[in-house]
Amino acid sequence: MDHGSPPSFISNPLAAVQHALTPYTAFEVAGQARTKWFREQGYGYGAEQSTKPHTLGFALADSPVALLAWIYEKLHDWTDNYPWTEEEVCTWMSIYWFSTAGPAANVRIYYEAIHTWDDSGTETKVARVSREGLQRYIGGVKLGLSHSPKELRLLPHAWTRTQGDVVYEKTWETGGHFFAWEKPDHLVEDVRGMFGRGGGAQGCVAGKDGY
């Protein structure tokens, strides 16, 4: 899922000028429509998980049918017409249902992303993970970007590049939110392109030459 913000004339004037003068591509225009659909029609789950995660969690832990409905909806809507088999769906359900933490554990991160609390006895309220924090520039970290047309939030590429030092970027014609499951060959190509010999992050691991 894309993160980022419009390039600023203060922090990155060259990128801001390029963004202002360059028309959006067909991929980016379609991406804005996809993002609008998700924000208006597909984010109800996020509102529930970020405000009342344990209320939802009791239902998911109590009923396999509730868990199936909650997860399968996303397998259907968040992929690029991926042909899910019954075995695959049951495998995904089993990962949630039979995990040690239980099917309610995964919804908690949404709550933590938007709430603050007293941390380690200090008086300062802090958020350990936040959406705003994910959008800020992080220098010194080599960043790779991979864009799929059926991702849920698709921002203009210039926005996503404001997150850090981008050394690899790829736009795919197919694929959705569950990228590693739908298109494992794309993921492999991305990793090799970024970390392999000649890639932007080659040599980032001491003693490795990219192969």
Describe this structure in words.
This protein is mainly alpha-helical. It has 11 helices and 4 strands. The protein has helices at 13-21, 26-42, 44-51, 53-62, 64-77, 86-97, 108-114, 131-135, 157-160, 179-182, 184-195, and strands spanning 117-118, 125-126, 138-147, 164-171. The two termini are 28 Å apart. The mean pLDDT is 89.
Fraction of residues in helix: 40-55%
Number of strands: 4
- The end-to-end distance, rounded to whole angstroms, is 28 Å
Strand content: 5-15%
Give the spatial strand order of the biggest sheet: 1-2
Major beta sheet summary? 2 strands, antiparallel
Report the structural category. Answer: mainly alpha
**Mean pLDDT across all residues, rounded?**
89
C-alpha-based Rg, rounded? 20 Å
How do the helices and strands follow one another from N- to C-terminus? Answer: HHHHHHHEEHEHEHH
Number of helices: 11
Low-confidence stretches: none
Principal-axes geometry comes out as globular
What topology emerges from the helices and strands here?
Layout: H1 13-21, H2 26-42, H3 44-51, H4 53-62, H5 64-77, H6 86-97, H7 108-114, E1 117-118, E2 125-126, H8 131-135, E3 138-147, H9 157-160, E4 164-171, H10 179-182, H11 184-195
Parallel strand pairs: 3-4
Antiparallel strand pairs: 1-2
Task: Give a summary of the structure in a few sentences.
The protein has 211 residues and is mainly α. It has 11 helices and 4 strands; from the N terminus they run αααααααββαβαβαα.
Fill in the keyword field for this structure.
mainly alpha; two-stranded antiparallel sheet; 10% strand
